[in-house]
Design brief:
6 helices, elongated, Ubiquitin-like (UB roll), mainly beta, 16-stranded antiparallel β-sheet, about 55% strand
C-alpha cells in the first residue's frame, strides 16, 4: 500500500484478501486521481505566473500526481521565501482544487497583507508596549527578516519568559491575515536589601527596589537607599517611548558614596571616600533598525575625603585641589556623553549569536562646568557564536574594548581615569587596580548552559590601563571559571580568576553576564 501510495496517482487504495487455491489472493482496489486537462493560477502578483507554472511542473492531459504536487508546493513557497516573504504561497490544502467538469486544476496563491496583530498572554503588559517594538506594518506583506527582528525586540524587552512565533489566520479570500502571538510574562520587579559594618561609619544598610515594566507601560522605576552611618540614594525613571515615539527619556537624582583606593605596584598608596550628588538626563533615539543614538548630560557635585592611615589620603592630583590642606576637596562638574550603537544580538540579556558595536564620545569640563577639561572616546565590540549543532547550549563570546583621553585643560584626575581590574573587566585582580588615560581590554568566554537555571563559563581576560604616572602599555592577563545562575531574584554569576603572574586568585560576584 505504501509503495502504491508513493506513486502519487491514486486517491484511494483498499486491499482485499480472499482464499485462493492453497493460499490467498490479494486484490488492491484503487481510485485514480482526477485527470488534469489544464492549470490555472490566480492570486499572485509578487511572483509571475510563468515562474509558478514552471515550479508546478504538472503534466497536462494526464492523471494528477499528488506526490509531485506536494513537492511542487514546496518549490512555489521557496520562490516567496527567496524574496524574503513569510506566509506567502500555498499555505492550506484548500488553495488547490480540480473542477470535475472542466478538468482544470486551479491554484490560488496567497499573498496576504497584514490586517492586525493580536497578542495573548499579556495580563500586565499593555498590547501597545509589545506591538510598538515590531517592524510589521499593517497593509504590507510580512517579510521574514522583519518578523525575526520583531520577535527578538519583543523578547529583549525582558518582560516575557517565552515569546512564541505568531500564527497566521488568513481571511477566506486569502488577501489579508491576522497574526496571533502568544507571550508568557515573567516577573519584572526586584527587591534586594543588605547590610554590613564599617569601622568608620558603624552599621550600614541598603534597600534597592526596581520595576522594569511599571504599570505595564514598559517604564523603568528604581529607588535605592543606603542608611546608617553612611547615607545615599538613587532615584531614576526611564520612559522608553516618549509621546508614543521611539525616543527614550530618562531622569535620575542621585547621592552616592563609595570607598576607593589607589594601587601602584600592588601597593595601596591612597584611600579615600568619593561622594557624588546631582542629576542626569538621558535621551535616546532609534536611528535605524538596530542602531540607536543616546545622549546623557550629568550635573553633579563631587566631594572627595581621604580616609587616613599610614601614607593614605587623597591621590596626588586631588591633593593639588586641596587648598585648605584638610584632606578634603569639593568641586562642581558637568559632563556630556554621546553614544552610537549597532546591536544585532539575538538576546540582549544572554546572547548566543550576533554582534554589537558601540562608540562613545564625551566631554567633561572644557565648555562645561569643572576644574579640568578633557574628552574621552571609547569603543566596544562584542561577538557571539553558538555551537548548538555540536554541543547543546555551548556559546563562544568575545569582547574587545579600547579608550583614549585627550586632556585640554589642567590634568586628568585619578577618579576620572579609565580603570581596569575586578568583576567587569580583569577578573583575578583588585578592583580598579590599573588606571590611566588610555586602556585596552579583551575578554573571551566559553559558556555552557546545562539548564534554564544553571550554567558554567571558562574565561581569559587581558588588558591594561596606561598613559598616566609614566606607565606604558603592559598587558595583564588572567584565566578562570565561574557559575551562572538564574534565580527568582535575577541572573547572577560567581567567577574565580587567577592572574598569570605569581599572585593568588580572587572570587568575583556580579549580576548577569559580564558582556
Amino acid at each position: 500500500m505504501r509503495a502504491l501510495r508513493n506513486l502519487g496517482y491514486f486517491s484511494t487504495i483498499v486491499p482485499q484478501i480472499t482464499p485462493y487455491q492453497s493460499g490467498v489472493k490479494i486484490v488492491y482496489r484503487v481510485v485514480e486521481n482526477p485527470w488534469v486537462k489544464d492549470v490555472k493560477v490566480t492570486g499572485n502578483s509578487v511572483v509571475s505566473t510563468a515562474d509558478i507554472l514552471k515550479a508546478l511542473s504538472v503534466k497536462k492531459n494526464a492523471i494528477l500526481n499528488v506526490g509531485q504536487l506536494q513537492e511542487a508546493i514546496k518549490r512555489i513557497n521557496k520562490l516567496y521565501s527567496d524574496k524574503g516573504l513569510a506566509y506567502c504561497g500555498i499555505i492550506n490544502q484548500d488553495q488547490f482544487a480540480i473542477d470535475p467538469s472542466s478538468q482544470v486544476l486551479s491554484i490560488k496563491i496567497a499573498e496576504p497583507k497584514l490586517r492586525e496583530i493580536k497578542i495573548s498572554g499579556n495580563k500586565k503588559t499593555k498590547t501597545k508596549v509589545v506591538t510598538r517594538e515590531m517592524f510589521l506594518k499593517k497593509g504590507d506583506l510580512v517579510r521574514t527578516e522583519d518578523l525575526k527582528r520583531s520577535l527578538r525586540n519583543v523578547y529583549n524587552l525582558g518582560y516575557f519568559e517565552d515569546v512564541k512565533p505568531p500564527e497566521p489566520k488568513l481571511t477566506l479570500d486569502k488577501q489579508f491575515m491576522d497574526l496571533e502571538m502568544e507571550v508568557k510574562e515573567q516577573k519584572t520587579g526586584s527587591a534586594s536589601f543588605g547590610g554590613g559594618y564599617s569601622s568608620v561609619n558603624g552599621m550600614i544598610g541598603f534597600l534597592d527596589l526596581a520595576e522594569n515594566n511599571f504599570r505595564g507601560n514598559g517604564q523603568t522605576v528604581r529607588a535605592k537607599i543606603q542608611f546608617g552611618g553612611e547615607k545615599s540614594y538613587v532615584l531614576s525613571f526611564v520612559e522608553p517611548w516618549f509621546q508614543d515615539r521611539p525616543v527614550s527619556l530618562g531622569l535620575s537624582l542621585f547621592k552616592t558614596a563609595v570607598d576607593r583606593q589607589e594601587i601602584q605596584n600592588r601597593a595601596i598608596v591612597s584611600r579615600f571616600r568619593e561622594r557624588r550628588d546631582g542629576q542626569s538626563v538621558t535621551g535616546g533615539w532609534r536611528v535605524g533598525r538596530d542602531q540607536r543614538l543616546a545622549a546623557t548630560f550629568t550635573n553633579e557635585n563631587v566631594d572627595v575625603n581621604g580616609l587616613g592611615g599610614p601614607g593614605f589620603g587623597l591621590p596626588a592630583d586631588l591633593q593639588r585641589l586641596d587648598t585648605n590642606k584638610d584632606g578634603r576637596t569639593e568641586y562642581g562638574e558637568q559632563s556630556l556623553r554621546l553614544t552610537w550603537s549597532d546591536d544585532q544580538r539575538d538576546n540582549a540579556m544572554n546572547p548566543h549569536n550576533g554582534q554589537r558595536l558601540s562608540l562613545t564620545g564625551g566631554v567633561t569640563g572644557v565648555f562645561l562646568k569643572g576644574p579640568n577639561g578633557f574628552y574621552q572616546y571609547t569603543g566596544d565590540y562584542r561577538r557571539y557564536h553558538t555551537f548548538d549543532d555540536v554541543v547543546d547550549g555551548l556559546t563562544l563570546a568575545g569582547r574587545v574594548r579600547a579608550g583614549h583621553t585627550a586632556v585640554v585643560d589642567g590634568e586628568l584626575r585619578f577618579i576620572d581615569r579609565f580603570a581596569l581590574g575586578g568583576t567587569d573587566t580583569l577578573r583575578g585582580f583588585e578592583d580598579r587596580e590599573f588606571t590611566g588615560k588610555d586602556f585596552m581590554l579583551g575578554n573571551i568566554e566559553l559558556r555552557k548552559q546545562f539548564t534554564k537555571m544553571f550554567g558554567v563559563a571558562a574565561f581569559i581576560d587581558s588588558g591594561d590601563a596606561f598613559g598616566s604616572d609614566g606607565h606604558d602599555l603592559d598587558l595583564k592577563s588572567s584565566y578562570g571559571a565561574g557559575l551562572r545562575l538564574n534565580t527568582p531574584l535575577g541572573p547572577f554569576r560567581l567567577d574565580y580568576g587567577k592572574p598569570f603572574d605569581d599572585r593568588g586568585g580572587r572570587f568575583h560576584f556580579g549580576i548577569g553576564q559580564q558582556f
